[in-house]
Structure formats: C-alpha cells, structure tokens
Amino acid sequence: MSTTYTWQIAYMDTKPQQDGLENVVISCKWNLLGTDGEFTRSNFGYTRFEAPQSEDFTAYADLTEETVLGWVWAAPSENGGVVKADAEAAIAAGIEADR
User: Fold this and answer.
1) CA–CA separation, 36 vs 58, rounded Å?
2) Left if phi > 0, otherwise alpha if psi is -120 to 50, otherwise beta: which for 80?
C-alpha cells in the first residue's frame, strides 16, 4: 500500500487591521494525517507568517486552504514553517515503525 496524506488548516489567527490591510492572517494551526491501510500517524504545527505587502495581499474571503498551506510550506522553520516532503517522510517512517 501507499500512504495517503491529508493536510488541513485547523484555524487561522488574524489581525483586524495591519498596515492599511484588513483581516490579515498572522498565523495558523495545521494538521497532517497519514494513512496506510490500517495504520495512521498524525502531526500538527503552528506557523507564524510575515506581514504581507499590499501587492501580495489576498483578502481573507478569497483565501483557500491550498494558499495557506503554501504559506506554511514556504515559511522559515523559525516561524514554524515545514518542508512538505520532510513532514510526509516523517509520517511514513512512523507508520513503517508501527508495522
């Protein structure tokens, strides 16, 4: 079997106003679930984001989970960012250890 990975944004923290922008996402909690047959492993994290520039800003109402996950994967590790492939490899290793 192969492992199926499900990434999810659990919640986002916002600032009502920042540098003239409204409802700015400043951080999020994310979850990662890996499933391989009867075996599952999960991980979660909290990632802080740098203040957006007005030209890069996406309105809160227009955000997608894919967009925010992209920010998580692009954020520096000191802000809680993760390398997607590394996080998934850690889940796969945990599942393999459970077999």
Assistant:
1) 35
2) left
Q: What's the order of all strands across the beta sheet hosting 39-48?
A: 4-18, 21-36, 39-48
The dihedral formed by the CA atoms of 79, 66, 10 and 86, expressed in degrees to the nearest 10: -50
pLDDT per residue as tens digits for the range 58-94: 999 999 999 999 999 999 999 999 999 999 999 999 9
Dihedral, CA of residue 78, residue 74, residue 30 and residue 27, to nearest 10: 70
Is residue 68 within a helix (H) or strand (E), and if so which, with residue range? helix 65-74
Residue 58's φ and ψ, nearest 5 degrees, are -115, 125
- Its pTM stands at 0.90
Q: How many residues belong to the chain?
A: 99
